[in-house]
Each structure stands twice: as C-alpha cells, then as structure tokens.
Fold:
Amino acid sequence: MEKVSNGDLDTVLIIKRNDEIGTLANSFNNMAEDLGRHRKHLEILVEARTAELSKANEQLQQEISERTKAEDELKRSQEQLRDLASHLQFIREEERGQIAREIHDELGQALTALKMDVHWLSHKLPQDQALLSGKIKSMSGLIDTTVQSVRRISSELRPKLLDDLGLSAAMEWQANEFMSRAGIQCNISSEPEDIILDQARSSAFFRIFQETLTNIARHAHATKVEVILQEDSETVELIVRDNGQGITERQIADAKSYGIIGIRERVHSLGGDLKITGAPNKGTTVQVRIPIGAQGGPK
Ligand SMILES: Nc1ncnc2c1ncn2[C@@H]1O[C@H](COP(=O)(O)OP(=O)(O)O)[C@@H](O)[C@H]1O
Ligand SMILES: [Mg+2]
Structure:
C-alpha cells in the first residue's frame, strides 16, 4: 500500500483471504488499477496537447519570419521610392537649368539682334514717316518687354543667382519678385548675411521657398510674410510665416496636398525635418531644418 501511495500503481496486494481484509485488498487493487488507467489517459491527453502547442508555436514562428521578411521588403521598396524621388528631383533641377540657359542664350541673342535691326531701321527712315516711326517705336518697346520676360522666365526656371551668389541672394530676389507680383509685403532676414550651400541643399531650400510663397499667394489671404533664414554649425533653418487664414491639420495631412508632400520629400531626402502649423485667422508657419556637414553628407 505504501508503494502504491508513492506512485507505483502497478503494485498489487496479494492477500488471498475470504474475510474483510481479503475484500479490502481486492477493492484496493481495483482502485489502484483504475487510478493507473486514469493516469495513462491523462498522460496521453497531455502529450497530444503538447504536440498541438508545439505545432502552433512552429506556425507562429513561421508567420513571424514571413512578416519580418515582408516588413524588410516594404522598407526596401520605400527606400527605393525615396531614392527615385530624389533622383528625379536632381534630374528635374538639371533640366530646368539647361532649359533656362537655352532660353536665356538663344532667345536673348535673337532678341538683341532684332533690337539692333529695329534701331538701324529707325535711323534709315525718312523724317516724314511719322506712322512708320511710331510703329518701329512700339516694336522696340515690345522687344524690351520680351527681353524682360525671357530673363524672368529663365531666372525662375533656375536662378543664376542661386549658383552665382548663393541661397540668401536668390531668396531675396524671389521675395522681391513675389512682393511686386502678389502685392504682399515680404520681409526676409538672413543670418549670416550670405548663406552658401551645396547644390542639392540650396536647390531644396529655394524650391521649398518658392512653393511656400506660391501657397501664400494662392491660399493664405495674407498681407504680410516674414522670412528667416539662419545657419549654425550643424543646420540651416528656414522659417516662413504669413498672417493669413491659417492652414488646417486636415490640409497638412491630405494625401492630395502634393505641394506639401513634395516639400516633405525634399526635406526627408536630405535628413532634415519639417514643421507646418496653422492658427485660424492668425496665419501659417512653415519651418524647415536641414543638417549640413558630416551627418547630411558633404557641405
Ligand atoms: N500658407 C497657407 N495658408 C493657408 N492655407 C494653406 C497655405 N499653404 C497651403 N495651404 C492649404 O494646404 C493645401 C495644400 O497645399 P499644397 O500641398 O501646396 O497644394 P496646392 O497648393 O496644390 O493646393 C492648400 O490647398 C491649401 O488649402
Ligand atoms: Mg501648393
């Protein structure tokens, strides 16, 4: 009985008697056998359950590794997209520069030649041809305004200033253009006075600035714009603040806000960050910080 109580259920009491003790021994043996059966059954159940669990565990492991793989792939394709976007920006900038130069050079020369011819004609004309000389004068005026347009268009495509005099000068020029065309006051301050960056960064800042000004002209109903450009040892920061109706969170996050998406993409590809905030009827602030030097590549 002690053996049985210690777990050895195969032990059998051998007591061959016909009295109460014999009956007790029989009952005891039956009970021990019953217990043994139950224990075996339990063991089988546990084994089956364990097998199920380890199978489920295996499946989970597989799912996890598949998901990790999918995540890696997603990350890779996002990176590729980002690379593609910045490559396209680069190409676009190159092409704009080329078109700007061609417009400037080809049309510029043709217009200058035309201007000289008209000038020559005006001197060849007899004194009494008032009608013709009036016509020539207006042609000459038209040539002058066309020269101005060619300059403006090629500057907007790729400001020579940006390459020749740097970001601060080009932004100042753009701010003046904006003031005279949109009729909105625009103050710009640059600290230090001349900020000169590499081509990728200066293009990015300049295009972002153009987009924010266009947005102000188109959407803000502002009367004043404050622009701050500042550089410290690690970053260059641009802040454009208007006093218009204020952009909303929804407009900032809208998947169709392609202008803002473009700004974000440019900033992102240079390792910088973008903050846009709007307050109803108080205005909108766009803040861009881009690292210069080691972290963001060569300056
Ligand atoms: N300075 C601003 N003031 C008020 N609303 C603005 C300003 N800039 C942008 N928005 C709002 O954000 C939206 C998204 O801007 P953007 O992505 O540049 O697209 P788009 O200019 O083509 O409409 C605009 O349609 C406008 O509603
Ligand atoms: Mg826009």
Summary: Strands lie at 185-191, 224-231, 235-242, 273-279, 283-291. Confidence is low (pLDDT under 50) at residues 295-299.
